[in-house]
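Quick start: load a record and inspect it. Here is Inositol 1,4,5-trisphosphate receptor-interacting protein:
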Amino acid sequence: MPVGIFRVCLVVITAIVNHPLLFPKENVTVPENTEEIIQKMKEREESLRLEQLRLEQEIAGQEARQKALEKAAKVVEESKEEKVPWDMWTAISMVKDTGGEEDDMAVLGKAFKGVAFPDKVILASFYEKRILGTTGDMARMREMVEGFADDLLEALRSVCNRDADMEVEDCMGVGSMYENWRVRKPFVCDLIVPFAPPEPYCFRSQTWCSGDSFPPDEQGYGTIKVCRADEDVAGCICDKTKLGEDMLCLLHSQANTTRPNSEMEDLLCFKNTQYLDADQVMKWFQIAVTKAWNRISHKYEFDLSFSLLDSPGALKIKFRSGKSIAFNLTPVVQYENSDVYFISHFPRSGLAADLPSSTHWFLTFAVYERRFIQLVSKMLPANACHVSCLQILSFLHEKQCSLTGPSGLTNYHLKTVLLHLLQARPCQDWAPEKLEARLQDMLKFLEKCLHEKKLYHFFIGNGKVPAELGFPIIFQRAEPLNLFRPFVLHRDVYRKTVDTFHEMLRNTSALINEYTVHIP
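Running the structure step on this input writes:
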């Protein structure tokens, strides 16, 4: 009824405004040029038509918002009856139980109010036509890159001095390409390469949660000390033993210039210290890879080059046809006997953008993250929607950033959100038909974390990590690590990130419809 009254008023206004006497010339007479009058009337008519369309769309939006509020109220009532249990770690991580969805809506109010979210039919079609087809491409690329990397590392071992150089182990695939959720092209494989010093040396690591005091900006980092294998943990034996005149300490003697391992020491450590230097490791690794490629390049019909100068193993294969494949081969140091690794560089990521110093190494839990996803996937329903949710969210964020510029959110943040929800939600909640609901859960959780500037690392401080993973207990007992801490320190980045996220929510339907074949 209000729309009908509005249209009648609009017709009356149009008739009045279009009357030619409302546009007199200076002599207050009607222009003799009939064509000029007709042209002005047409312009006014077009302007009013556009204004009418805009107002109609606004009215339609208001009606949609009203329906959304009614639907939300109904969902809240239903959820109160369900009373799905959530664990304590989820509460710490700010994931409310389904009975608290009303509180979530209060916090999320502005972001989700009036958002026309695609239904499950549209989402399923979008996923099938836009994302699902890339799975085969990822598998073929992984196979090709892994085969070449193994050959390259074997050549690297052959050109290194086994008595003075680092010992390189086999590489391992980590990240989105190996967890099968990467959607951004070009595809890039991330491989990590553990290395160790030659005998008689060894690495002894120290982390921020090992009992020693680390400032807040160094949480998540550690240092690596190069020691002799027979050296006491508390210090070098030269500090406790009086050496004879004919004996020298290979680590601490300034006068010894002939010892066989001096080249290794200069390469590994920061000047005048025993601490492993990430910059020195980067230089060593790039030189070693270059030598290795020179040895085997005759076997391949493509060129190999470094694609990023500030990353030790950001490599690019370039074929004669002009096509190229990029991959990262990054040296890492194993933490004790676990699958936690110290890593110096994160290509294409802001996780370790501001290292406190070149002797501080970031800890990566990528191997355990991959195992956790594999473990949970075995317990979920067939064709579960967990990977689909992460792929769609990653796609939406990437497209929005291409429109409005980069934000402080990374794919690692998005994956962390999924890991928390996988632990919090019952297995049956990830059935394929619940894709729409779980995607909305991820968006709501993410915005709640942005609102409070808190997104905790999934493994650090999480006492409920499945025992089957064999995760080190020292990190489970540590204080939770807030991945959104930089937002507290950099308000401009935070504001940009929040604005980009809200813009992505508003554009969700448009972005998905743009990349989906029309469904009648």
